[in-house]
Amino acid sequence: MKKLLLALSFTVFFILITACGVNQESEYGMHEDENGTRFIDNRKEVNDRQDRSVRNTTNENPNFPNLTNSPGTTSTTTGVYEDKAREVVREYSNFEPDEVWINGEQMWVTAHTQKEMSMAETDKEEAMLKERLEKAIPRFNVNVKITER
Questions:
Q1: Furthest-apart CA pair in the chain: how many Å?
Q2: By the 8 A CB rule, do 36 and 43 touch?
């Protein structure tokens, strides 16, 4: 019984000693070190400031969609790229945009036309549309398919 009580008291004493003096926040702040580097943290900040470095890099390239339109958004979403591809098809061709799929570095774009085209005309139009899409969205390898409706 004495051994059990001694072991239990030692365990409680050890827990109390190790728990004391744990500093959850450093002298530089909870999310920063001495150089101002931000640590990764899953706790919500009080003032919800945006990460300015992400906003500056997205505004430097006009072909890169601005991903920080809404406050607190710093991650990429593929919906922005799909919308941009549909916009390019709508604005710079005579075709109707339809499905846009993204799989890794590949973007698959389907466009429709009302007129009948030969295979050579379809290939030529697909190549021109592919070139336009790759200029507008350079980060993807674009595959274009034009179908008749």
A1: 95
A2: no
pTM (2 d.p.): 0.49
Gap between the Cα atoms of 130 and 120, Å rounded: 15
Q: How far apart are CA 142 and CA 92, in angstroms?
A: 16
End-to-end alpha-carbon separation of the chain, Å? 88
Q: Locate tokens 């085209």: which residue? A: 117
Amino acid at 39: F
> Which helix (DSSP H) or strand (DSSP E) does residue 10 occupy?
helix 2-19
For 47-98, write each residue's pLDDT tens digit. Answer: 545 554 444 555 556 566 555 555 544 445 567 889 899 999 999 999 999 9
**Helix, strand, or coil (residue 107):** strand
Cβ-proximal residues to 21 (8 Å cutoff; 6+ apart), any chain: none
**Cβ 146 vs Cβ 125: under 8 Å:** yes
| Mean pLDDT of all residues in 103-128 | 93
